[in-house]
């Protein structure tokens, strides 16, 4: 029996359309140039690395003079863009409460997101929130899933997990989680209904 449903954040719950365009506009550079640099050092940032170590090389590569104020502004803007879940995704999470199943969020994200997420108006939909920078490890490191399993206090087989990256799904399965690769909101509804044995509001009878 599934006792916890664990959601990834990026793409699974939030899909920011302006993830690259908005910061590029602030910096006065092309979105493609910004995007090409965005993920290069992200793993270290999401593991708890400093914002300066992440953002300063991006700015220097783009020919933009780095400053403390600009780095702080970029870090906040980036986090805010990720912290806008799709309404349909939040409806999905909210509906799970009707099944008597608890929920958790497990995201590869920097420290600033860990701070800001706890002040959102939707964080209370989750019983537990796990941020990679706070754990010190990023998915798909098996230690992430071991730490979360221990903290949830349930058996691995009692955890359902949705993530948009196959290596993360495979790592979760290796530990015994019932993990599913995200496709879209409708697919998530169907899969969760199957594994949890529930029907969400609006589902066909």
CATH homologous superfamily designation of the largest domain = HAD superfamily/HAD-like
Major sheet summary line:
5 strands, parallel
Structural class: alpha/beta
Oligomer: single chain
CATH hierarchy: architecture of the largest domain: 3-Layer(aba) Sandwich
Question: What is the helix fraction of residues, given as a range?
Answer: 40-55%
Question: Order of strands in the sheet with the most strands?
Answer: 3-2-1-4-5
What would your notes on this structure say?
The protein has 205 residues and is an alpha/beta fold. It folds into two domains: 4-15 and 86-196, HAD superfamily/HAD-like (Rossmann fold, 3-Layer(aba) Sandwich); 21-82, no CATH class. Helices cover 49% and strands 11% of the residues. The protein has helices spanning 21-27, 31-38, 42-46, 51-62, 68-82, 87-96, 111-117, 132-135, 142-152, 166-174, 185-196, and strands at residues 4-7, 102-107, 128-131, 159-163, 178-181. Strands 3-2-1-4-5 form a five-stranded parallel beta sheet, sandwiched between helices. α7 links the parallel β2 (102-107) and β3.
Summary, kept brief:
With 205 residues, the protein is of the alpha/beta class. It is 49% helix and 11% strand.
List the helices and strands and how they pair.
Blueprint: E1 4-7, H1 21-27, H2 31-38, H3 42-46, H4 51-62, H5 68-82, H6 87-96, E2 102-107, H7 111-117, E3 128-131, H8 132-135, H9 142-152, E4 159-163, H10 166-174, E5 178-181, H11 185-196
Parallel strand pairs: 1-2, 1-4, 2-3, 4-5
Helix pairs in contact: 1-2, 4-5
